[in-house]
């Protein structure tokens, strides 16, 4: 395996970065990785996604969710090279410092590949799906290539974690319409920007976000890693998504217990 020193090197996260995240519950950081590191993982993750994907339904015949992306989970269990990215101390340290916790553990990873011609990812908050007791969660969104607006980069409603309305909606046409309507009557800034090579975003579980359609003829390749406070406890699920996540991502953990299953290791 190639030597990739940036995986373990500390990132110069400033107090200004931390303050920005605490206010807005998202941040975009440039030059987290270099082009060589991203190209390496682009090749490995793309190969694994191609091996594992099962979607053979034409785009036009899929639901809005199905058109949004190909979604594959916990690739770190399938490939040692991918595991080196998911277990990166550099990324985990950023996650811990932004959340202002001492230590983080893995919730799960997922590849989100938006196909050429793929549709929007509707407005939503990730934590709708997660049976987690607190808001100490954060997702690293790692584009494996430069991602212009035409490719459908992640968009954020800065500070929208303060809104409770819409938290009970899964990713759907309904969430896109209802949350967009709610956000229009607020002062929260809508951030829609391209991502440079090596630029990575981090966002909280309750901040509202979306992504545009991929109008290019290339796949938009993104790897994500979801972290949680290492002391996170399992809460009683309140919807079918949380019930499914409990059994899939927190195996053997009982309600009220710290989520320390074998697939939720401490990463920093």
Report the mean per-residue pLDDT as an integer. 94
As a percent range, the share of strand residues is 15-25%
Strand ordering within the main sheet: 1-8-5-10-3-2
Which homologous superfamily in CATH is the superfamily?
Answer: q2cbj1_9rhob like domain
CATH class: Mainly Beta
Count of helical segments?
7
Report the biggest beta sheet as strand number plus sense, adding barrel if it closes.
6 strands, antiparallel
Question: In whole angstroms, how far apart are the ends?
Answer: 22 Å
Low-confidence parts lasting 5 or more residues at pLDDT below 50? none
How does the overall form come out from the CA principal axes?
A: globular
- CATH topology value: Jelly Rolls
**Rounded radius of gyration (Å):** 17 Å
What's the helical proportion of residues? 25-40%
The strand count comes to: 10
Secondary structure class reads alpha+beta
- Reading the helices and strands in chain order gives HEHHEHHEEEEHEEEEH
> What is the total number of structural domains?
1
Any guess at the CATH architecture? Sandwich
Protein name: Phytanoyl-CoA dioxygenase family protein
Organism: Gelidibacter pelagius
Keywords: Dioxygenase, Oxidoreductase
GO molecular function, one term: dioxygenase activity
């Amino acid at each position: 395996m190639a030597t990739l020193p940036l995986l373990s090197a500390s990132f110069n996260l400033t107090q200004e970065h931390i303050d920005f995240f605490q206010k807005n519950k998202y941040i975009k950081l440039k030059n987290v990785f270099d082009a060589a590191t991203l190209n390496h993982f682009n090749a490995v993750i793309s190969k694994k996604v191609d091996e594992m994907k099962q979607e053979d339904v034409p785009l036009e015949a899929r639901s809005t969710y199905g058109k949004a992306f190909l979604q594959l989970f916990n690739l770190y269990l399938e490939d040692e090279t991918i595991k080196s990215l998911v277990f990166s101390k550099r990324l985990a340290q950023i996650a811990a410092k932004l959340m202002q916790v001492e230590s983080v553990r893995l919730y799960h990873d997922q590849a989100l590949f938006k196909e050429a011609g793929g549709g929007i990812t509707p407005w939503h908050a990730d934590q709708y799906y997660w049976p987690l007791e607190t808001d100490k969660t954060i997702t690293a969104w790692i584009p494996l290539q430069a991602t212009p607006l035409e490719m459908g980069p992640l968009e954020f409603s800065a500070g929208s974690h303060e809104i409770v309305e819409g938290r009970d909606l899964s990713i759907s046409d309904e969430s896109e319409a209802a949350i967009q309507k709610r956000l229009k009557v607020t002062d929260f800034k809508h951030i829609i920007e391209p991502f440079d090579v090596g630029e990575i975003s981090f966002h909280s579980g309750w901040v509202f976000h979306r992504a545009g359609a991929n109008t290019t003829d290339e796949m938009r390749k993104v790897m994500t890693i979801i972290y949680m406070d290492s002391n996170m406890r399992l809460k009683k699920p309140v919807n079918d998504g949380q019930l499914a996540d409990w059994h899939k991502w927190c195996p053997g953990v009982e309600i009220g217990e710290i989520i320390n299953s074998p697939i939720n290791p401490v990463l920093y």
